[in-house]
Amino acid sequence: MNQKRKPYLHEAIITFSLLIIIMATAIILFDADPHIPMLIGTAFASLMAIRLGYQWFEIEGAMVNGITKALQSIIILAVIGVLIGTWVLSGVVPAMIYYGLQVISPTYFLVTTVIIASITSLATGSSWGTAGTIGIALMGVARGLGIPAPVAAGAIISGAYFGDKMSPLSDTTNLAPAMSGTDVFTHAKHMLASNSISYVFSIIFFLVLGFRYGDGNADLSSIDILIEGIESNFYITPWLLLPPIIVIILVSKKMPAIPGIFLGAVLGMFFAPIFQGANLGDVLNASMYGYVSETGVEAIDSLLTAGGLEGMMYSISLTIIAMMFGGIMEETGQLDVIVHRLLRNVQSMTGLVVLTLGTGIFSNLTMPEQYISVVIPGRMFAKTYQNRGLHPKTLSLVLETGGTLTSPLVPWNTCGAFMFSVLGVSAFDYGQWAVLNYSTLIVVIILTAIGSKYAIARVEDDPETITDYDTSTTNSF
Fold first, then answer.
1. Which of 272, 319, 399, 443 is deepest in the core (most CB within 10 A)?
2. Closest to 285 (Cα-Cα) out of 254, 307, 264
3. Cα(240)–Cα(246) distance, rounded to whole angstroms?
């Protein structure tokens, strides 16, 4: 029986390099989903653990411990699937989109685009869904106005990613706090300040830019089709905005995430028969399998076919596999040896945040999948933030900023590739116009440098919202 030992730096690098190679090859060359490459990476980590003297039952225990740390996020993702299905069935999501589409104006088209994309993404929790539906329609309007496609795409992506990050329905918005050790609503509230600053900057930027194209004659037919399609298939009333308002109020009163989201799903179940004439079978099917839109309007069907417990299994299964890898890397000390080397010359809070942001960006460049850019840096730096007395929401903010928001700016990342496929514009072209995505990086660094509580939060500031934290090991700078 081999005696366990600490890994050498080159051994940890080998494990990560093998993961990077298999992930990059599978995603870039074969357009594969990241699940199996991540599972193969977990096998590589297991082999290295055996080399370090670990027995199989210890490796298996490490994987289970890793999954355990993400169980709250997994439960929330499952409940969110139910909520989305019932909210579409009841007309809540269609109503939010319908009212957002009422404000199209040529002069204010770009700023309106940001707002509509953010509302849609906030309602659905999906930047991809927003870009692939509303985004396509807005790109058609932009062409009618003579607005350059990269500018319009930048406005769409800016709005879509703001809504995605602030939506408790988003998978990555749930994944980041799970990796750091807090809950989704604490995470979202902590992101509000930095994201709002960059959002306001984006609004002003596109408002000013929009005056250059105010004299265009837009073809609003694609928007009209969406509005008419929603009107003809759903009963729309302002009362349908009540469930999200109630959930927001309850969250502000510090109701825990799981019961808060579940109550929202129950409200959707209750509203579905009242406003849309659905029966119990419809509610149960939408909760399990998601809502299936059959309006005959491709853009609407693509946007509103969503939700359901089954629809969340992609994200849930990837979270489980990623946490298996992370559990092994933590248990065997392979994460520690890499982080120790990275932090050797980093003493300041700003340096730590910049290093974490850079790690997320590097992950997007080399393992081109936004989930991985949240999971890997999250597990690498969780203990470091803990040892320095920082609240987990500090890390979750940085993970979202460096990982999720930069993913569409990389052309070969899954996000960048998707945006190109639906908007017809490469990240090389729209990158400079996706001002919210990169300006948030700058805002977070500035807030950190000045020691703002809106970026840097300590354990004692909000201890009751910590879900995975060993305060006995903490120390200050």
1. 399
2. 307
3. 11
Q: Is the pLDDT reported for residue 43 higher than 90? A: yes
- The candidate with the shortest Cα–Cα distance to 84, out of 168, 157, 145, is 168
Phi-psi region of 337 (alpha: psi -120 to 50; beta: other; left: phi over 0): alpha
Element (H, E) at 424: none
Tell me the C-alpha distance between 301 and 229, whole Å. Answer: 10
How far is it, in rounded angstroms, from Cα 262 to Cα 293? 23
Instruction: State which amino acid sits at residue 153.
Output: A
DSSP state letter for 6: P
* DSSP structure class, residue 182: B
CB 187 within 8 A of CB 98: no
Rounded Cα gap, residues 164 and 173, in angstroms: 8
Which residues make beta-bridge pairs with 466? 182
Q: How far is CA 425 from CA 113, 161, 416, 418, in A?
A: 16, 17, 10, 10
Asked if residue 20 lies in contact with residue 367, where contact means CB atoms within 8 angstroms, the answer is yes
Rounded Cα–Cα distance for residues 291 and 82 (Å): 10
- Three-state DSSP class for residue 180: helix
CA 171 vs. chain centroid, Å, equals 5
Within 10 angstroms of residue 286's Cβ, the number of other Cβ atoms is 26
Task: For 421-443, write each residue's pLDDT tens digit.
Answer: 778 888 889 999 999 999 999 99
- Sign of the four-CA dihedral 50, 51, 54, 58: negative
Specify the pLDDT at position 294.
Answer: 86
377 is written with which tokens? 């840096």
Whether the predicted pLDDT of 170 surpasses 80: yes
